[in-house]
Amino acid sequence: MGPLVPYIISEEFSLVIAFFLGIAFGFILEQAGFSSTKKLIGLFYGYDFTVLRVFFTAGITAMAGVLLMGHYGILDLSVIYVNPTFLKSALLGGLIMGAGFIIGGFCPGTSVCALAIGKLDALAFVFGAILGVWGFIESFPLVENLYNANNMGMVRISDYLGMSNITFGFLLALMAVGAFVATWFIENKVNNRESKIEPAKRNRYALAAASVFVVLAVVAFLPGKQDIINMRIAEAKRQQTCVFKEIPADKLADEIVNNYYALNIIDVRSPQEFEEFHLPMAINIPFENMMERQYEPLFRQRLKNNIFYADSDTLVRMACLKAKYIGKSENMIMRESAREFREMFYLTEAPSPDAPKNELQTYTFRTTAARKMDNLVEALKNIGAPVKREVVEVKGGC
Amino acid sequence: MKKSELIKPKAYMNPYLAGFLLGLVLLATIYITGRGLGASGAFKSVVIASVETIAPSHAESTTYYTDFKAENPEGPWKNFLVFEIFGVLAGAFFSGVLANRTGLKLEKGPRVTNAVRIGGAILGGALFGYGSQLGRGCTSGSALSGMAVLSLGGILTMLAIFGGAYALAYFFRKLWLK
After folding, report:
1. For the residues B52-64, what does the mean pLDDT come to?
2. Which end of chain B is less crowded, N or C, counting CB atoms within 10 A of the terminal residue's CB?
3. Is A17 helix (H, G, I), strand (E, B) or coil?
4. Which residues pair with B151 in a beta bridge?
5. What is the distance in angstroms between the CA of the first residue and the CA of the last residue of chain B?
6. Residue A80: closest CA among chain B residues belongs to which residue?
């Protein structure tokens, strides 16, 4: 599940990838004509709308891709960097950049492209941009308040407008197609060309535009990864076809004492219930949070057995099923509930001396096991705890 | 005559195709790193590295530099955007060579002198550089990458950049038009 940095690809190696992504970025910008200031500026005088076409198409493609990947659980949308919104500085900064664009004829990315193929005006622009950045840094104390004013956090425009991501995606794609058609007419008028297009070309464009809407419709109407898993859980529950590997509490206690390192004991109840009482060596993953990325390795590994328990029989079965759909690890459930486990091992009362022999044996076994488990927890409280995987906020920046 | 035929620049790529490919590169960047592309951040690294080299005492006594140093303990060069911009230089050069578009050249409007064009480029660059820091990103880092993840700030910045440029286009028409 993406993003790959930092768990799958290290920060260090991501720099190498950055170089290759940059090559593709620069190559495409240059191929599109962004190394020519006349082509860029044409946008503002109506004689060449290439910038709008490339820019909008790229934005829509990436947006549809991000939504699609998020829908199928390939990309975790909750951790990707959403540029934070600072209302005043975003608008004022944008206006200043607009002035820079019309006076200088480039933006930073395109100026680097133009510089690469030997444009001297781009060299001047890059020099100016460096001066401008330096000027900002030196004058930062003066604008600091403005810079940090109206902090709205990492807010998505769809949330701000109170609509779903996909609804806004549809609107943006519609706007893009509308803009492409309108600017085509404007461009032809400014350049005194006839607004005619070959039927074959027109059909290809229509097909391309339609495919964007197909992708968006898939995200909007077909079930995503989360829905599929939930549907399967509901189904299996209804059909009762799934066979659960159960482990009795006594056997589990024995396993904890002797083989604790081969087990992940997972409490799927709420944190409050976990806090109140939990099995020795257990970790808490509330049922609702099982799909979180930080727990994924637990359900994908094949070295340890996962043993689920809860207070409710249904909950623990659903958790076990869910784990089965997330990964391929060996999953079991404890036959008894957490409450029963507590009663059996920690709240048990000594039977009378003349009780049957097996009852006495059970009592001895359980109290010994309870003591051993406590010793184990005490001994391993520092090293045995699972390494907590912090959800890393991706830092972006420009 | 034949020689000039040979070195004639090739046509530009279809803008929609270029946009689609650019979108895929942006998507790959988001998938791999969790954030989008950018450009002006690399300029910031250049500035900070230069000031730290040329005027170390100034860098040590100014909050902005010390904050940057605290946030980027590996130094200004070891940065995603710096490596990316080196890639952009290489990629654009490669494309320019393939399409016969390389060569020292000053591109300008028909009515301006070289000096005006250079002056305009420096002034425009300075404004863009300043604005990109104030707005937390330029056309690539804020507007394009912001659009891909539906960031409110990114889309507002995009509207402000293009809106600002359109609003001022009339006043600077002599720089570009006949």
Report:
1. 92
2. N
3. helix
4. A156
5. 29
6. B34
The DSSP result for B82-134, as a single string, is HHHHHHHHHHHHHHHHHTT--S-B----TT--HHHHHHHHHHHHHHHHHHHHH
N-terminal to C-terminal alpha carbon distance within chain A: 25
Tell me how far apart the alpha carbons of residues A391 and A312 are, in angstroms, rounded to a whole number.
Answer: 29
SS3 of residue A75 by DSSP:
strand
The continuous run of DSSP H or E covering A161 comes out as: helix A157-161
Nearest to A62 by CA among B106, B42, B150, B48: B150
Task: Give, in order, the Cα–Cα distances in Å from B112 to each of A387, B108, B169.
Answer: 65, 7, 16
Quick: pLDDT tens for B21-43: 999 999 999 999 998 999 999 99
Enclosing H/E stretch for A264? strand A263-267
**Closest partner CB to A96 (pick from B30, B63, B130):** B130
pLDDT at A293 over 80: no
Amino acid identity, position A226: Q
Determine contact: A149 vs chain B, CB below 8 A.
Answer: no
Tell me the residues of chain B between 102 and 161 that have a Cβ less than 8 Å away from chain A. 102-109, 117-118, 120-161
CB interface of A with B, residues 289-328, below 8 Å = none
pLDDT of residue B7: 72
Amino acid at A361: Q
Q: Which chain A residue lies closest to B31 (C-alpha atoms)?
A: A3
- Nearest CB among B118, B147, B163 relative to A59 is that of B147
Full-model pTM:
0.84
Q: Which of A9, A102, A169 lies nearest to residue B165, judging by beta carbons?
A: A102
pLDDT of A299-322, one tens digit each? Answer: 888 888 899 999 888 888 888 888
